[in-house]
Design a protein that fits this description.
Four copies of one chain form a homotetramer.
Chain A lengths: L2 E5 L5 H10 L3 E5 L3 H9 L3 E2 L3 H5 L4 E4 L4 H9 L7 H4 L5 E4 L5 H13 L3 E4 L2 E2 L1 H7 L2 E6 L2 H14 E8 L3 H29 L4 H9 L6 H5 L22 H17 L5 H18 L17
Parallel strand pairs in A: 1-2, 1-4, 2-3, 4-5, 5-6, 8-9
Antiparallel strand pairs in A: 7-8
Helix pairs in contact in A: 1-7, 4-6, 9-12, 9-13, 12-13
């Protein structure tokens, strides 16, 4: 069986690589943090001392990094440091699962194409819980062939695997989705609080809107009003879940995208402003559904 | 079998009354427009020459009117004109299906209660198609007893029947839902157009977001981008459906409600501004999903 | 010399009435709070035991009350309680200086006109400092004749006296102005903070924008960034000045007005949402320039 | 007398260079469009066949270009093409008057500093009229020494010359100002139209707000409501002035800046969305005060 290289073993990457091992694949890993590699080694992964070392000779390379500049540096090299493109074979499939700007993804894809190498952007949603459970959603940008070749590894880590279009399309679709998610979250929060302000029970109102034309993912899976759903962050002091700081990052990417295409996104732009204010007030590490507290009167 | 009085036989009220007749009920109707009554008479309704005449002696009275002032005038009377409360028996059940401000509904309910009469606000969603098909959603505000008594008549006209709370709660829940709907529609429109601006296929992007965390009613049932769904208004030149002018009316009610409770609704307020501008540009009688055109570049 | 009745001796009304006394006018006062009257009596005012008692026989009646309902009750009476319109002579000039909705002002004006009495709405700006200094701005709605007759009394209390139009126009102009003021304050705050975030000195940036196309009243007189201007609330912990709760009230009136005329005010609506959130977080009694803190990072 | 090189002779640069000639300076010019150079030659300028040729040996170099990429390419070179930094002497003063992102300005300044050359960003405001009249405003970023050295040439082209701070500060201040300007324009438009919707005369309302707390540059100099001021674009079919497309460009720069510093600018972001929609509806080449039409009912 062929070898998969996995670079970037953080909160998401670690459990994703572990799922490849569980599926019986041979996995070579690299991370700047030795402890992160140690944990994977204990589960059967081969540890490499450099990213290029992990990637050289692998048939599939998967990367999971914080931002576009890291992805560009890793694949393209930086000054005298070699990049992955300098060391992988021509028939290697490169899959970047980071959430980054589409431009960076397109740049790396174009550079890879010059050497005849397939590069696919495949950002994920589903959070750390989905990474651990192997139930992530992958939104892919790249050729049809690359998308087909990626199926076995992606299926070992996720459930829904979408093909959004050519290079960068995975990033664009992810960022459109997350921008819309922020709008759903803010819009649902203000509607629920207005109902509460008029004496309605937020659970009753949620049940009604959920099956009416106000129905949306946040009412279904992630109600922001404390006490309505038992197991979501809003009922646990807004701990865990998807951090405000990460939503601010994604909304930043969405507004970068809007600037590039000269698009108008009044709702997404407003959501970004509200989330930035929320983060600046000290809520950056709480769950993003805590935006609900911007609308509720201060607890005495 | 007992008699139902139905007052207000417009685009919604007409087919609703017809469904009561189909269910075998005895129905007395009144409308200011004789032709509207004629059509119901042909289907078996008894025609009254006044609203009070229709209501006197009925066990259930249903009203479907344009705005709060009409509801108040009809039930409470106006100067020397008697109101329905002056003529109905103490055990009559009054059901107002109009979409109006909660204050007016609460006022009429309080006046009815002085005479020991049950009044329930029960605004509907589902549009003229739902009215014809008998598949409306009713969102009710009133006592538990009134809600129970209303079941047979409401079930003859609708499918989902919710009890939102006490007097006025039906109106509040309806307006919270429709405010949220407008946010979903605008947010989905801008996200789809941004994807299109970056070269994505709106159908592919819709399919991805529909089952992801951006999922919402508009992606499921009412996609605003032309060509994505075959049978919705966006694919028919934004004709039919739910008019922009009606969304502007409902968003006005939502902002009245927000002022009363001193609530903050930044998304709903922004949606209202965008819809008012859209209406002022001549789109008032088109479907509300035509807000998509505010984001798309002008067709040459 | 003729007699002026002054009803409503709060933070604004008290010093306004005192300025009439200083101008040598004969003043009869009434307030629900005896202490408020005591202070004016010490300055030479005649105290009345009822509002109607103060108004009867006066040639000019001035009122300064919290909201539209108080104004309507006072002028029109309430149930068995007589209103001012029942007791004043036909040639009395009625001037209401309260900031209320234009509809209420127009209603009272219309009722007064039935008895041939002139009523003028004349809301003020300038705050308690302006009231004490006699430097208020009056924005008047009413006939040209009423506007002329009002000059002597208004000049005793203020400096700029505008005639905005017919009945209610004073209220509309005041509320348009204050809505715009809130937009200037929020827009200036976010621009200044963005400059600071990029390392600019807020004083230097303020000086530049003040004389450029970003110039506006807040940069000129009321800079929201602490330390830029010495004597304004932002440099005194946002104490004093014009309270957030009062701006929320005025923005509520502006949105009521926008609903009535079906106007679109995206900036004003957004400002209201931001101010309501700010108030709900416990800032209601601080100066309205404290909205600046919504944009600044939390002080550690 | 020393020589000034002027590169970029468009609608702004052309008249600016002409003012240097009028002040008696020796000017060498370059532009990609030969006709643009011809006009300056007729006024006494020396024409160069390349930008580097114009700059070499000049004591001051002034550039006026469309965007950051042009500025970077011109100063830093591009591939085998030499940049200005490669040809100018160490004591040359470089002044870029383009409106670009602060990052690009800082990058060029840093590269220039490596060779001990002073570079200053000095974006202008005042439009083509100000350029012709020599009454531009310059907002400068750079060292104190550079700012002093630049005085003679800047005074030949403008009236107000500000020092905003170090490298890039001129661009930041300019973009903060223009973001605020867009907010003033939209906020003033909606306030005026709401007044008109309530029957007020826009001229009267403008006069009142101008000297009240709603006072701002647009009411003073650039009223957006047709017919209020005689000589501004709103009274000439919104022709001339500052194009919507240019405001969209500046608002794009402001949002890029907000993303970089993680700032929240809800008003500026909303203004950008409204201006982008306005441009997409075909108004890109009209004056930016035409945003007023978004609020006014469609003329029949």
């Amino acid at each position: 069986m062929s070898t998969v290289a996995f670079i970037g073993l953080g909160n998401m990457g670690g459990p994703m690589a572990a799922n490849l091992l569980k599926a019986g694949m041979t996995v070579r890993v690299f991370d700047l943090v030795p402890e992160a590699m140690k944990s994977l080694a204990d589960q059967g992964a081969f540890v490499s001392s450099t990213a290029c070392g992990a990637a050289a000779g692998a048939s599939v390379v998967i990367t999971m990094l914080p931002a576009g500049k890291h992805v560009k540096n890793l694949y393209l090299g930086n000054g005298s440091d070699k990049g992955l493109l300098d060391v992988v074979a021509g028939d290697t499939l490169l899959i970047d699962c980071s959430t980054i700007d589409a431009q960076s993804a397109q740049l790396v894809a174009a550079e890879a194409a010059k050497s005849g190498i397939e590069f696919m952007d495949a950002p994920v949603s589903g959070g750390t819980a989905g990474a651990a459970a192997g139930s992530l959603t992958f939104i892919c940008g790249g050729s049809e062939a690359a998308f087909e070749r990626a199926q076995p590894v992606l299926k070992a880590m996720g459930m829904n695997i979408f093909h959004a279009g050519g290079a960068g399309a995975g990033q664009v679709a992810k960022i459109c989705n997350n921008m819309l998610l922020s709008v759903l979250m803010v819009g649902t929060s203000e509607a629920l609080q207005m109902g509460v302000d008029h004496g309605l029970d937020p659970k009753v109102l949620s049940d009604i809107m959920k099956v009416s034309s106000g129905g949306n993912w946040t009412l279904e899976k992630y109600n922001p009003c404390p006490g309505v759903m038992e197991t979501v962050p809003s009922s646990k002091g807004y701990e865990g879940g998807f951090m405000v700081d990460l939503m601010v990052k994604d909304l930043g990417l969405s507004q970068e995208a809007a600037l590039l295409s000269n698009s108008s996104t009044p709702m997404g732009a407003l959501a970004r402003s509200l989330y930035v204010n929320h983060a600046r007030q000290g809520n950056g590490r709480r769950d993003f559904s805590s935006i609900f507290e911007q609308f509720a009167p201060l607890k005495k």
